[in-house]
């Protein structure tokens, strides 16, 4: 059965909130073990690398939120979400960077729960 688009939007908002608040338990559940992020700078990070940087404070989101509609395309086992995001983040305990990007997430239904498997952020002008 195809997931309801609003349910997928809610899962994505929950995932973003967990990254901002540092709720690593929720973040762990919402990211598949083989998750991979492609950052706006083109760097590929595994789940362990990405969530590890957040847990250690090396990467600190102050804001990570959708600033456009979250568009959802889905099938029984997969959902793709795309939206523009506002991100305020510090890296390596440095200055706060603020930017807007296009964000695309791919979710798969695994063992009865939706998990992000791929994310890609592209800086928007």
From TrEMBL:
Name assigned to this protein = DUF4440 domain-containing protein
**Origin: domain of life:** Bacteria
Segments passing through the bilayer = none
Q: Name one Pfam family in it.
A: DUF4440
DUF4440 domain location is 9-115
What InterPro entries would the database entry show?
DUF4440 (IPR027843), NTF2-like_dom_sf (IPR032710)
């Amino acid at each position: 059965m195809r997931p309801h688009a609003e349910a997928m939007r809610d899962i994505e908002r929950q995932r973003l909130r967990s990254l901002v608040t540092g709720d690593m338990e929720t973040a762990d559940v919402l990211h598949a073990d083989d998750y991979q992020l492609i950052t706006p700078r083109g760097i590929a990070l595994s789940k362990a690398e990405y969530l590890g940087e957040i847990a250690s404070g090396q990467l600190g989101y102050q804001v990570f939120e959708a600033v456009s509609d979250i568009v959802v395309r889905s099938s029984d086992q997969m959902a793709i979400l795309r939206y523009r995001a506002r991100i305020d983040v510090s890296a390596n305990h440095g200055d706060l960077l603020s930017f807007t990007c296009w964000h695309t997430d791919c979710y798969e239904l695994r063992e009865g729960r939706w998990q992000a498997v791929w994310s890609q952020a592209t800086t928007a002008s």
